[in-house]
Design brief:
Elements: H1 3-18, H2 25-34, H3 43-53, H4 56-61, H5 64-67, H6 75-99, H7 105-115, E1 123-129, E2 135-143, H8 147-150, H9 153-162, E3 167-173, H10 183-198, E4 202-210, E5 213-216
Parallel strand pairs: 3-4
Antiparallel strand pairs: 1-2, 1-3, 4-5
């Protein structure tokens, strides 16, 4: 065991007992880098990265081309950062999607903002619920910008029937910072609402998620009437 190996083992032993709470910011990043930089001292690299980007979150979100300019930072290190972010999102999504009830706008907003956090193109997802808000199924059902295939009513109905859902919430993301619905979004939502009503299902809301916001069509004055359409 080399000098660095002993240092790593001591730090990881402390982490196992105490978590990150006892460590300085550079030490936290140093330990993360253990798994992407296996054969060198990562303390100096951690300091250099934080000197430029100030926080671990900023380091992990930095452009790949910039990170690769740091001595010791490799493709494998960048892949580690991406995997950590994806794993965190997956962990939070699965905890919320499969173990909880969701009944409020705020619960859906926070869920969908996390659900779409790693998406680079437009995706549509549905949350199927029973009459008291128990989450029965969460699933992505389309991608791209073709409304006909994007909002696949037939697939929505099949999934709802498969899990015995009575209510559904739709969401899709707008890459960028504009969460407001397009006219296609509005038209598609009207058609879906009317079709689901005729089948005895209830569309509760359609959320549109962007990088820093989440728009509830059922709450917004300009689109709220859609959700009051009767059978």
């Amino acid at each position: 065991m080399g000098l660095h190996d002993g240092h790593r083992e001591r730090m990881l032993s402390k982490f196992e007992k105490n978590g990150f709470s006892i460590f300085e910011e550079h030490e936290k990043l140093e330990m993360i880098l253990f798994y992407g930089v296996p054969r060198r001292n990562t303390n100096e690299l951690a300091h250099e990265l934080l000197n430029k980007y100030h926080t671990i979150a900023n380091v992990m979100d930095a452009p790949k081309r910039e990170l690769l300019e740091f001595d010791g930072f490799t493709e494998r290190t960048y892949q580690l950062f991406q995997m950590i972010k994806e794993t965190y999102a997956l962990y939070e999504i699965e905890k919320k999607a499969y173990k909880t009830y969701m009944t409020t706008k705020d619960e859906f907003r926070s869920f969908f903002q996390l659900y779409f956090v790693t998406e680079k193109q437009e995706q549509v997802a549905i949350v199927c619920l029973d009459s008291v808000g128990k989450v029965l199924r969460t699933q992505k059902i389309g991608s791209g910008n073709n409304s006909e295939s994007f909002f696949n009513l037939q697939e929505m109905v099949k999934i709802m029937m498969d899990c015995s859902a009575t209510e559904i919430v739709i969401a899709h993301n707008h890459p960028g910072n504009n969460p407001h619905p397009s006219q296609d979004d509005i038209n598609s939502t009207v058609q879906i609402k009317q079709s689901l009503d005729s089948l005895g299902f209830r569309l509760l809301d359609h959320f549109i998620v962007c990088e820093n916001d989440c728009y509830s069509m059922a709450s917004a004055e300009e689109t709220a009437d859609i959700f009051k359409i009767k059978k």
